[in-house]
Write a structure and sequence with these properties.
Layout: E1 9-15, H1 35-50, E2 54-64, E3 73-80, E4 86-93, E5 96-107
Antiparallel strand pairs: 1-3, 2-5, 3-4, 4-5
Length: about 120
């Protein structure tokens, strides 16, 4: 089980680099920051706060509501959920909700690298 440290809330702000490897082939003439990349950012935020590498167990009620483009700023907010190893999260982009849901994580024995 991950440390709860009370009702833990985490925030980060990220500017989407137009040279990010996430845009390779996604899509050449109409670049879109993939949903999986957004979820990786949530996992990275929680992992940094916990101080250990985490891996995805499952997702729940995830909604992608806005297309994210290169150069946009993402504000990520995550908080401990009601269930073990769960976190609610919201990603805001340019003042609008881009993505939200629940993410379930557990400590990882290996580290992953995002492009």
């Amino acid at each position: 089980m991950l440390s709860r440290r009370g009702w833990m809330e985490m925030r980060s702000r990220n500017i989407i680099d137009d040279q990010s490897g996430w845009f390779n082939g996604h899509f050449p003439n109409d670049p879109i920051f993939p949903g999986i990349a957004q979820l990786q950012m949530v996992c990275d935020l929680i992992s940094a706060e916990q101080g250990l590498p985490l891996r995805l167990l499952r997702l729940s009620r995830v909604k992608f509501k806005k297309i994210v483009r290169p150069g946009e700023t993402l504000d990520i907010h995550a908080a401990c959920g009601n269930k073990e190893n769960s976190y609610s999260f919201t990603i805001m982009s340019e003042g609008r909700e881009a993505c939200s849901g629940m993410i379930f994580l557990q400590p990882s024995t290996t580290t992953s690298q995002s492009p």
